[in-house]
Amino acid sequence: MTVTIETIRAAQETLRGELTVTPTIRADRLSAALGTSLHLKLENLQQTGSFKERGALVKLRSLTPAEASAGVIAMSAGNHAQGVACHAGRLGIPATIVMPARTPFTKVERTESYGARVVLHGESLSEAEAHAHELAARHGLTFVHPYDDPLVVAGQGTCGLELMEAVPGLEILVVPCGGGGLLAGIALAAKALNPGIVVYGVESALYPSMRQVLAGEPVACRGATLAEGIAVKAPGMLTREIIRETVAEILLVDEAAIERSVFALMTEQKLVAEGAGAAGVAAIMADPARFSGRRVGTVLCGGNIDARLLASVLMRGLVREQRMVRLRIEIDDAPGTLGTVARLIGEAGGNIVEVYHRRLFYDVPVKMAEIDVVLETRGPLHVEQIRARLQEVGFTAVLMGEVS
Fold first, then answer.
1. Could you say which DSSP state residue 220 is in?
2. How many CB atoms are located within 10 Å of the residue 343 CB?
3. Closest CA to 33 of 314, 313, 285
């Protein structure tokens, strides 16, 4: 089976009435900041928080009664696992999901909550995949691949149909890419509807496997990335050929760009996106001149970010924008001095969050002390106003620990 606009339209009919048609919105604040007309397809609002439900459901709906009765198996450490488990459970199809042994407990529990049987095996996704194929052969299960399957690609392509229908006249599409299922499906759909549209894929700079494969280079991936959902070392055989024919370029985004995009989506658009889900926005933010004045669409393909990690990203973003700062201030080690500093900061409009006051571990005279004051501010100009107010009465405040 090959993937065409007809198979994607057939997949759309399969999903009709069974899956959320997610909204596409114009990101007004980001559009103004970036000098473009940016439109976001909100796949983070799917039931399981990811586009992966589309391809999984199309594949599940294709099973014969005998195949459905026997059950399905998939390998995944995240969104694909939940997409298969959710809809297999809803359709009464037994599902087994093989996950690497070190998969976080929360992902295991969420997958099990949809009724799937989870098998923990191996140290990597490749080891989990090999075991899943062994179990499939042993028990007569249908393997549901996360991206390298024509029905899965067609299912993901329905996201592109919806986006193109929602925003006529799109000039550019920017789509996150891991194994390539979403990018291949969307690119096929978009090019069929508008041959002149330019489609870019986006990968983490630490996992540029699709870009390397298309360039005929050896695949070299490494490290921990915020965009783990697209951290794929082995892109699809089917998807790479579709992408070769339909996608203009694979763009790479570094960790700082991904982190900034998660922060910007949350603070500017009030949208929760995981690192992979924000990769398209990251690419646009990293190179706004490429997209300036154009009508651009991208997919927030997932919103399943760990709450603790999101909190860290948000706090680091506040530090980066100097809306949260740490000042180191040298003071006389005398009664009332700390209170004076606090009063001056308050008069200047700063909000003290934490104070660290130590005498023993700083290289200062014995009758002096240094304090570290963590403050909420309105931004860089306000920080300088606070420092100037302290300087007026003899307190030198040094700005510490900025995030790049």
1. -
2. 11
3. 285
Token pair for 333: 């080690």
Most distant CA pair in the chain: distance in Å? Answer: 83
Question: End-to-end alpha-carbon separation of the chain, Å?
Answer: 48
Q: What global pTM score does this model have?
A: 0.90
Of the candidates 250, 242, 249, 236, the one whose C-alpha atom is nearest the C-alpha of residue 192 is 242
Of 355, 349, 354, which is closest to residue 331 (Cα–Cα)? 355
Q: How far apart are CA 279 and CA 261, in angstroms?
A: 7
Find out whether 73 and 132 touch, Cβ atoms under 8 Å. yes
Residue 69 CB partners (closer than 8 Å, separation 6+)? none
How buried is residue 191: exposed, middle or buried, by Cβ count under 10 Å (0-12/13-18/19+)? Answer: buried
Query: Do residues 151 and 158 make contact, with C-beta atoms less than 8 angstroms apart?
Result: no
Residues contacting residue 66 through CB under 8 Å, at least 6 positions apart: none
Q: How far apart are CA 83 and CA 91, in angstroms?
A: 12
Instruction: Confirm if 319 and 402 have CB atoms less than 8 A apart.
Output: yes
Name which of 232, 200, 243 is nearest 80 in CA terms: 232
Residue with tokens 């089976």: 1
Q: How confident is the model at residue 215 (pLDDT cuts 50, 70, 90)?
A: very high
Report the share of the chain in percent with pLDDT over 90: 83
Q: Can you say whether the dihedral through the CA atoms of 82, 83, 84, 88 is positive or negative?
A: positive
Which residues, other chains included, contact 254 with Cβ-Cβ below 8 Å and sequence gap of 6+?
Answer: 205, 286
Report the alpha-carbon angle 153-155-157, nearest 5.
70
Q: Determine the angle formed by the axes of helices 52-61 and 5-15, rounding to 10 degrees.
A: 90
**DSSP state, residue 261:** H
The third-level CATH classification (topology) of the domain covering 322-400 is Alpha-Beta Plaits (3.30.70)
Q: pLDDT (tens digit, 9 = 90+) per residue, 238-271? A: 999 999 999 999 999 999 999 999 999 999 999 9
Candidate CATH numbers 3.40.228.10, 3.40.50.300, 3.40.50.1100, 3.40.640.10; the one for domain 5-51+149-316: 3.40.50.1100
* Beta carbons within 8 Å of 320's beta carbon, 6+ residues apart: 260, 263, 402, 403, 404
Question: Across-strand partners of 85?
Answer: none
